[in-house]
Amino acid sequence: MVLLGRGLLAVGRVAFRRPMIVRHLQYDAFVDRHIGPRRLEQQQMLDFIGYKDLDDLTGTNVPNMIKAEKALELPAPLDEYKMLKELEAIAAQNKIYRSYIGMGYYDTIVPAVISRNILQNIGWISQYTPYQAEISQGRLESLLNFQTMIAEMTGLPTTNASLLDEATASAEAVALAARTTKRNKIVVDSFCHPQNLDVIRTRSGPLGIDIEVSDSIEGYAFDDKVAAVVVQYPNTEGRIHQFDELIESAHKNKSLVIMVCDLLSLTILRSPGDLGADIAVGSAQRFGVPLGYGGPHAGFMAVAKHDAKNALGRNIPGRIIGVTKDANGNRALRLALQTREQHIRRDKATSNICTAQALLANMSAMYAVYHGPQRLTEIARGVHKSTAYLAYHLRNAGHEIVHKDYFDTLKIRLKDKAALEETKKRAEEMKMNFRYYEDGDIGVSLDETVKSEDLMDIIYTLNGATEKDVTKLREERWEVACPLIGNSPHSRSSLFLQHPVFNTHQSEQQLVRYMKRLENKDVSLVHSMIPLGSCTMKLNASAELIPITWPTLSSIHPFAPVEQAKGYSRIFGDLEKWLCEITGYDNFSLQPNSGANGEYAGLLAIRNYLIHKGEEQRNICLIPTSAHGTNPASAQMANMKVVVVDSDHHGNINYKDLAAKAEKYSNQLAAIMVTYPSTHGVFESSIRDVCDKVHEHGGQVYLDGANMNAQVGLCRPGDYGSDVSHLNLHKTFCIPHGGGGPGVGPIGVKKHLAPFLPGHSVVPVDGRKVGSVASAPYGSASILAITWAYIRMMGPVGLREASQVAILNANYMAKRLENDYRIVYKDEQGLVAHEFIMDCKPFKKHGIEVVDIAKRLMDYGFHSPTMSWPVHDCLMIEPTESEDKAEMDRLVEALLSIREEIRQVENGSLDKHLNPLKMAPHTLEKVTSDNWNMPYSRELAAFPKPWCTHKAWPTVGRVDDQYGDRNLVCTCPPIESYQ
Amino acid sequence: MVLLGRGLLAVGRVAFRRPMIVRHLQYDAFVDRHIGPRRLEQQQMLDFIGYKDLDDLTGTNVPNMIKAEKALELPAPLDEYKMLKELEAIAAQNKIYRSYIGMGYYDTIVPAVISRNILQNIGWISQYTPYQAEISQGRLESLLNFQTMIAEMTGLPTTNASLLDEATASAEAVALAARTTKRNKIVVDSFCHPQNLDVIRTRSGPLGIDIEVSDSIEGYAFDDKVAAVVVQYPNTEGRIHQFDELIESAHKNKSLVIMVCDLLSLTILRSPGDLGADIAVGSAQRFGVPLGYGGPHAGFMAVAKHDAKNALGRNIPGRIIGVTKDANGNRALRLALQTREQHIRRDKATSNICTAQALLANMSAMYAVYHGPQRLTEIARGVHKSTAYLAYHLRNAGHEIVHKDYFDTLKIRLKDKAALEETKKRAEEMKMNFRYYEDGDIGVSLDETVKSEDLMDIIYTLNGATEKDVTKLREERWEVACPLIGNSPHSRSSLFLQHPVFNTHQSEQQLVRYMKRLENKDVSLVHSMIPLGSCTMKLNASAELIPITWPTLSSIHPFAPVEQAKGYSRIFGDLEKWLCEITGYDNFSLQPNSGANGEYAGLLAIRNYLIHKGEEQRNICLIPTSAHGTNPASAQMANMKVVVVDSDHHGNINYKDLAAKAEKYSNQLAAIMVTYPSTHGVFESSIRDVCDKVHEHGGQVYLDGANMNAQVGLCRPGDYGSDVSHLNLHKTFCIPHGGGGPGVGPIGVKKHLAPFLPGHSVVPVDGRKVGSVASAPYGSASILAITWAYIRMMGPVGLREASQVAILNANYMAKRLENDYRIVYKDEQGLVAHEFIMDCKPFKKHGIEVVDIAKRLMDYGFHSPTMSWPVHDCLMIEPTESEDKAEMDRLVEALLSIREEIRQVENGSLDKHLNPLKMAPHTLEKVTSDNWNMPYSRELAAFPKPWCTHKAWPTVGRVDDQYGDRNLVCTCPPIESYQ
Ligand SMILES: Cc1ncc(COP(=O)(O)O)c(C=O)c1O
Ligand SMILES: Cc1ncc(COP(=O)(O)O)c(C=O)c1O
Ligand SMILES: O=C([O-])O
Q1: Residue B868: inside a domain, yes or no?
Q2: Average pLDDT, stretch B94-109?
Q3: Which residues are reported to carry the modification N6-(pyridoxal phosphate)lysine (chains A, B) (predicted)?
Q4: Which of A440, A643, A697, B436 is deepest in the core (most CB within 10 A)?
Q5: Radius of gyration (Cα) for chain B, nearest Å?
Q6: What are A256's strand-pairing partners?
Q7: Is residue A69 part of a domain?
């Protein structure tokens, strides 16, 4: 690039005083699209805060001691057009075979209307977790649909709004069982999918849970040490067991029963609830979510309610959507029972889970809304009938069908074992993937995409020859006896999905309107900035999102032969290399599918490294008070004891306290977990010393990379002393938050920790087979393309500039606000990093709480900043680099105007109770009501600023959290209530 | 399919009493997604209107005489998944070469953010033409941006919101020139693109305009017969002429100058306005709209204002968006000067154009909003520099560059003419398409997608060999002299796109929010039914829309060698065959790119057939009073004289009057144009007699197929006597209306008319080379895939059922409403067809006009039915088959509630003037205002029904049409007004 000075083209009267970059045959600089403020605006803001240019600012901001010494060595940026062409060519290296591997992943038909209007619709994917319920009723309703669906399919009443995947859900169930039974032995059926067994193994060890794997689960003899038994339903070989006795004998011993189940099969199989199981987990993937080479998909969990105390229910991990009422007495939804969660309970939490799989849960829920109970059953019966038909023809050809009770999966023993290689060759020719067991058997799992032609091809492949008469097949197929149709002991008789929502949106017109109505209830990035500190709600660009729905990326089974996934290998390879360069680490694991899961994997690497070194006694994890709740929760899961470190009045780690504690626990010190720049929004100058001190005492440094958005191109954790970090690709690297997930939390490590990164038993990762923390070897593989695209389009200079503008934006806003709100923490130079904390405590004495400000912001059309975290009674603002000056100015104006309203409460011009802050948010219903009885005006309530006319309205009044938690309802109201 | 009776699956308590269709391995029946009412609801509605089943209803409704005798022979339906696979394979037969053909079509980079959020967003594409301005301010603003862009790029102040394409725009300009100068000779530069010349020829003949084609336009000697001269700028060989003298001498002779121009070049070339031209036309395609094998793209026209009367401006064809104010005195936009248009002026209209290219105009306008003046200029300079660089290297290699003044197009005379074949072979190998002139020269046109690598490939192809050093090229390219950069007499100096809208949405975040804000101002099908009679606002399914953005369909130049378009050939072939089967015609032409253009092409076929038969004197076209305005307007353009035929009190054609007039004009009778079912919404039983009578007197029958939605599978125009019809694929066949286009109006004809269907001189159609009515041989080719997908998924049974349910829905609504609103026309059995007319005249005596009802419906959240057409003071409702019962019931409820409000005005409980009807629509601003001073309540104004809480709000109060027409403003306000 050649810089030709400012204002090359004298096109207009409007002065564009920005350095003109002449792009040689380059279409467009993506960085200019990604970054909000134009150069002129950047200059205005720099002038305002008193810095010459971006380098001047960040040169001051980032401590000298840690400054990156050289520019990032990353490929030069491509514009979006070229990037898409390049990525398309890479993706085309993936070979898309028909997948009959099964093992928890099935091809599915994503209804076009859902793909287009949810997955490809920025209005559905760019929200954050619904912390602000009043402007999130749309996806809260959809997530409640998800919960209702899971509760009804499993027959178990209490459930949550998704977990990370089936394997982590299984591990969460194991932990839940151990916790509630206070026992520590778990029996796992050896016929669980291997990845489930693996993650259960990974996660149980540190928790001190003993795993016994049983090869003959049906007759298992329980003793009073067994917390629970875990079975796969149907099992990994496709077999459906008769579990009644097992469950009875478990319960006799006060052991719990955990069933890992297949959602589609539950339409025709007796549900876990019907069978009497206590916990059901699984994946909702085959309900309309693409394979995506492993993810993202929504995991689920549902539990029985054994007693009035609902012990299992109240201990369930993850987010629960619950029904409550709002200030006007209307029904409203919001996150329930948050006191279980890490952000409140920290190391006492039920789980470390934070970001889950909301978007995918919504897709699956909509799939059920679209199909309804009848069509879902029809789909399942279709799949089952095809399987029976296949079994019939294979048996006729002399093969053995190993299990007689199956749903969609056959284990096939070839008539002639020697024919295996030939069969494999034919499968390859037919572009089909089967499961090949070690004993020489072949596994075939069918799904809703299987057409008559496919069945013919499978029969041909396995039998060697067949007349290919598809019409005949169409007729015959209905004649074959099916194990689950007719008089089967396995048949489901209980009803499900009877609520109107699953029975009224089944024409496309109806579904589109339903989805739109929900979408329009929610504030997302399409409306306004979402200044959630620590969440980094930056642009999710269309060009980054387009590839994820390409079949070349979305239609591969995670256990397909790796030779078929060359495109993915290239993407992973690039990403690992680029992320290493960006962070200064030596190796990366892309497996963790959330930030918290990355933390866990990172701490585990530390722990196993220490054990490997013979220092198993090292189990203390130092964690500053300001840490995110996931840090202590993860530490606890990794069998570390949390010792809290204080902060000083700058918001920095209290170095003295740290040194003292490092000293005190010198022999036991395992690690420190520290966020940088700190969650207080400052670049602590002592970071290097902190790292050194911990190392000095034999500990490892875990640097929480959630705030990497302030560092890319400016400094590298790997350079200044950290041993391991997770990155939140769904923050710094542009993966949309999806209203509460998906996320990706890859971890980077220094060389010594590399051997301890997660592996995978089915598809080894860099040769590693153990220690997996997720179902799939590369976690949420498909959305890694988003990050790839972002880095490829930004290039080294653009990425650095993004960090700089993120810092500029935060400092600009802080300075504009500081006269009216105290900025709680700044560094020695008076600067903040990429986010900052505003003190709202002083207003308490006038009766105004931070929540009043948060809700009042909705009336101005804004989503609140992060509330009371990491500092109570404060708001934390993170504008990100993608917000332009005008948008930030509007938010500033709103906050200043609210400050003025607070003053009016102080001085009595507004009532102490009946004021627009306390009454906020104001719904349309309220402000148009004929009975307006507030002492302030409707216009003040509704349109405190002229630009509020564009706002997205809250659709309910302030929600009542207590009421809902006292009366937990986490599914759609029973059908009677509609009649 | 096997019908297994009702309620096969006892899944639920909710009784699904619909015939269960077992689909053999078929995933899903699209027909169930397309049709709104579930079977149970259909039965309820049938019971209500007193019919046993659908066949009973339509068997009564459709006159026996015309009933189809057999089921349609169309392929059995595919579900959306299979359909997409099949269409993907067909589309893959198209070969995507790099296109350097030029000739008015250029590859372009559709910004991903625009593609995703407009073209792929049902919220932007499923609106109708903005007849109801108060709920259309979003796209009205975007179309105003389009007009501003066109006005400023061309330097001519009055413009419109798109025409069909460049060639029809050229022909419209010719007609406009002839009309305003009252002269009838037009001189056309022979170096116009051939397709422009062709359509000018086609359209001028019938209007009595003489076309003189001149090979040396620069020195043309004008005389006082010349209405205008038409030049292409730059011309088809890429040459830029010096037009100052030509324009001066034209003006001396009071002739007008029409410039057909390239939008991108105008960023650096002197604009038509700067040069003194009177009319500029062209295509906005290369502003971010895919090639799409020819369309759809927005044509444009802008005209000079020579005098206060603005003669050209007030005579411009097509829709003009104009600025006005609303009832509250706020700025509002709406369609301006509608009195020029066919729906008011009929055969005196300025054009027959109705549906235009609103969606594509919006895309192009957003492209300009996204890039702004500076980036647009940069793009143009980049293209130009590449062209100059290419010229330099070709000259160096000894080739001749025929014209020295060019923008992006070179005519290349090979050093060695004999090398042509070899060059062509290399081009083929490199997958590049050039233009091959008849004289052996080669044409190369560059565009914004051309990368360094492409330039290297072009140079290699033409020069035979070159070192492929891309980096070197990147450097060198900036050294080469460019004809338009530096001191060129052609250089533009005037400013353009200075308005804030083109200078403030240039980060993606900003643009997304801007587009969303506009989207959310408009009512589209995602909100509620749009019951516009005659407009058929049915479902536009996602699966139908997905293919149009596949590169295999969107990235082909319409003049690419036909061997490269095998996929398209297959789609066209299927469609022609299927449409013939559906209509009973023998041949189809897919070229007309709107219904009106189809009418024109059909009438032209009749006219040329008659001339061919030696009956040129036949020039009378009988048209019923109830006909759509396009009918008489098209007839006039086809040189026919309109004679109006009366209707009887049933709304049928007055057969006696018809017979008398056919008799009277027996010798001159050319045709009748009749809509069936009639625009009055009835199946006239006399239709066969009408056809026979006309034939008896030697006339041809043109059956306007806009109402084909009531006929598909039930009766076929070709069977009951019609000779030619257009279909509105954007009505019956699911192409979305795009807020005012695109449309496709293919025509079907009986065999005798087939030779007179449109041809194309560049790409002959079935051997036909003349008579083209559109720029591209297959018109808006890319969106034909939508119709293909629809028919493929519905199958013969589904299509028929759609017609039946459309009729059921209309009859259900009519019966529910008839006690409160007189249904103006019914057939002898008391039935309506697929739409019906409600009389609102009786309310006039109480001061309530039909417009008051229309506007009041907005308060209920509904788009008004068609207002005062075809019968004054009435509303015409067409529900379509895609609307479910609940939605129709809501609209009924709204209309009954409004009827009650009218009664209250009658009986005085509501004020005569200050009532919710007269004051409608009520904006949010109004109902939340502190100064509510209406004698009725806010709640009555805002939420007359509980379900109104979901409504999309009107964003302005009632617009003032007169004010805007008196003070015509059709561009964004001047920049000063923002400061
Ligand atoms: C500082 C910090 N660490 C860790 C996390 C956890 O990341 P995730 O939500 O992806 O599990 C967050 C998430 O918000 C965070 O802000
Ligand atoms: C009966 C009838 N004929 C013709 C047309 C013209 O079609 P188009 O708008 O596509 O030009 C219409 C359009 O509304 C119509 O309703
Ligand atoms: O989601 C967070 O807790 O940041």
Answers
A1: yes
A2: 98
A3: 731
A4: A697
A5: 28
A6: A228
A7: no
